[in-house]
Amino acid sequence: MKIGIVCYPTFGGSGVVATELGLELSKRGHEIHFITYKQPVRLELLNKNVHYHEVNVPEYPLFHYQPYELALSSKLVDMVKLHKIEILHVHYAIPHAYAAYMAKKMLIEEGIYVPIVTTLHGTDITLVGSHPFYKPAVTFSINKSDAVTAVSKSLKDDTLRLFDIKKDIHVVSNFIDLTKFKNDYSDCQRAMMANDDEKIITHISNLRAVKRIQDVIKVFYNIQKAMPAKLMLVGEGPEREKMDCLCQELGISDKVIFFGKSNEINKILCFSDLFLLPSQTESFGLAALEAMASGVPVISSNTGGIPEVNVHGVSGFLSEVGDVEDMTKNALYILSDDSRLRTFKNNARKESVKFDLHNIVPQYEAIYQETLAKCMLL
Ligand code: GMT
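Above: the input record for the complex with GMT. Below: its predicted structure, written as tokens.
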């Protein structure tokens, strides 16, 4: 199949999923065209089956807001025609599903029918999409997609609750390439980060308020009072400065390492003992899955799709959002006994296996095939 993938190219779960999906589909013989405003961060290799087409938005001083959707839909039209793309898979409803719908309509005028598969990732639904200023357009573009997927059962339920959706929503989970998280600690540079007796606690995100980084720091503060420990904070985002201040206030700045954005997440996870994800809301929690695949148990909130990934008492523990005391208790339970920690690490890795890309990517392929077959009948 010739598949056009539209995504956000930045360090965010939806962009990562879209990129890894495209790369795996290309290995399975499909021709993939990434169409976005910047080369996606995890798209390192372009090959004969992987193409990247940049969307440029010419700056025009008269415009207060530059019209990205317009440029994207025009680019989609051109690329579909030029490369004979058969299906468009858009990640994130805003504004991708909307722009794809416009492209589809323009192409119909020229006798070309290109179906659209829309994948909902979370914040496009729960945080931004349901805002009254966006809701009608988001509802419309979901309903006008030829197929819709959501990354968890919880996100599907949220979407049906928040919007008037007439379409079936397929649940297709986030996935992981387990070979990239080999659980092989031989090249792990742990000694560069912490002493042998220190436990390593990690959090990875785009440091937005929704991630509740203050809870990460408070849980870590409690852990390091009970045992030697270091905190690795990976990612950049709006909460970064505030969190720096909180660490100073609590007198733990020397125990917290801010990594910034990193492409070497698997290397950082390989020396981690525990992963913290206390989010306010989280449609799936790809970061938790990546941690588990590296054999790192997860202490998380029990919100959204996280319970579909992190199994309470097996791969880690779930607590109510904001319950720092419970998260601390659970973290200390895992960390305070080496053999228990080993068991949780093994369990985390085992639980991640069901999200192996070989189990999930064929589900997208089946949706493409089914969607194309339906369109033939139109
Ligand atoms: O929250 C993030 O880290 C970024 C965000 C995004 O929009 O890219 O991630 C969302 O999509 C990921 C991939 O499907 C999910 O694993 C994340 O849980 C989801 N984030 C939220 O729901 C807050």
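Notes for the reader.
The domain at 178-355 is CATH 3.40.50.2000 (Rossmann fold).
The chain has a mean pLDDT of 93.
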